[in-house]
Write a structure and sequence with these properties.
60% strand; mainly beta
Length: 121
């Protein structure tokens, strides 16, 4: 069993900042890529940012220069620092990770339950 638990969502005014955290727990050998996705009402889920085990990152064009993804491998945790937030950033943010469970021979895709970020104007 592998679980991802997000935290840090909330209500913030436009121009403000917020930091999301996602901690992986359970029995697993390793975690490969971790990322953050978001889904606004009536829209499809989209990639926000991702980070490899070695620390390489990529971002959606809409958040470049404003968001920063990082990870603490010792804590099995990924973070998303969100600055200069805009109303269009409002969405449910989901944590994603490619994890090799202890009882498995390949990596598997896991999702958190999501945390709501609301940016007011």
């Amino acid at each position: 069993q592998v679980q991802l638990v997000e935290s840090g969502g909330g209500l913030v005014q436009a121009g403000g900042s917020l930091r999301l955290s996602c901690a992986a727990s359970g029995s697993f050998f390793s975690i490969n890529v971790m990322g953050w996705y978001r889904q606004a009402p009536g829209n499809q889920r989209e990639l926000v940012a991702r980070i490899t085990g070695g620390g390489s990152t990529n971002y959606a064009d809409s958040v470049k220069g404003r968001f920063a993804i990082s990870r603490d491998n010792a804590k099995n945790t990924v973070y998303l620092q969100m600055n200069s937030l805009k109303p269009e950033d409002t969405a449910i943010y989901y944590c994603n990770a490619n994890v090799r469970p202890s009882i498995a021979i390949m990596y598997m895709d896991y999702w958190g339950k999501g945390t709501l970020v609301t940016v007011s104007s």
